[in-house]
Amino acid sequence: MDYKQLKIVKYMNKTNEEEYEKRINSYGVIKTDMYPYLMKRDSVKADYPLFVVPLQKLQILMQQIQEKSNIIKDLANTLPNVAKDQFYKEQLYKAVINNNEIEGVKTTKKEVSEAFNALTDKKNKRKRLLSTVRLYHDILSNDFLKIEDVKVIREIYDILTEGEIESNDALDGDLFRNDIVEVVDQNSGRTEHIPPKNETKILMMLTSWITFINDKTAPFLIKAALAHYFFENIHPFYDGNGRTGRYILSRYLSRKLDIYSGLVISQKINENKKKYYDAFRTTGDYENKAEGTFFVIDILELLKEGQNDIIKFLNEKQALLGAFWDKIQHHPNMTDLEREILFLLFQSTVFVDLPKDGIKDNEIVTILSASYPKKTIKDNIKLLRSQGIITQTTKAPSRHLLEISKLLND
């Protein structure tokens, strides 16, 4: 028999108390001390602890995710260095754009790209999204984001939402909101969720959340999904809750799995917003008594889909890189240095859409200078440009784009 929501069990049997007791007290159940606000008609109650039943389906899903993470790491590690750097950059861009877009915050790839480039430009420190991109770029270091104090949550929020929050959504508590807010469905006008009404209650719930995320007894993927649910249930800000919660989720998954699995989660949520919000609605229904099993499965299914996308993408790009290298290896009248310059340019552009994100000439010179004189490298870049094989896209700093059609027709 299919495993059903407690709400459906109640409709079938007139009651779900017996089934609830069986689930909450079953062997291996993950029972927390987090009590979410659950919708009961037009009001909320916090009578039940959040819990998960470790179904076989869930255990297999967790195993598959960890196996796919290992595949992703192996594929990424076999990429040439320039290709790997460009792939990471492209995934970071998508994470920032999608995380903002879920909440209706318009962000372009050009803006994120400019902010990323500004990270290393001391003259350019006023770009929109600079702080957000820096925070996401910290994921690359794989540092442990230790949250043992609620102040850290506020610090993350301030960085992610810098310059993006309207004045009427400014925080009025010491750290968080201190007034009532409702989450309303924009289409139906129906109240979907009523979170805690003041900062005192928010702080109490966040304290439970912090205790849970630092507990070592729950499997980490279940912990990640449950913690994400409860954080959004608390809704500590007037605006920016999702951006903050998904960043914390992304950062955690990046450390426990791999960078790319962590970065892809916002993209998959954005592509499946209905499934995402329905998952919150299911767990937030009072009749389901705070069972988080279905929410965890839904979030992990999205993560697995994202991993499948990454694996497919990396396999395709690996094949392109191999085919291109074979092509230039057999190209007549081409020197080894020219081949290496062209391969670096191809690595740079095969993973990105914006020409301005390509490798800089001075980076090419630095990479190849161990084997060739710098002047010779620069002269060969000019020669390839004069032959129409590459085109200059920017001058300060100088970048070039590979003209594939010209190369293939020669």
From TrEMBL:
**InterPro entries attached to this UniProt entry:** Fido, Fido-like_dom_sf, Fido_containing
One of its Pfam families is: Fic
Signal sequence interval, chain numbering? none
Organism superkingdom: Bacteria
What the entry lists under PANTHER family is as follows: FIDO DOMAIN-CONTAINING PROTEIN, FIDO DOMAIN-CONTAINING PROTEIN DDB_G0283145
Q: What is this protein called?
A: Fic family protein
Taxonomy of origin reads:
Bacteria, Bacillati, Bacillota, Bacilli, Lactobacillales
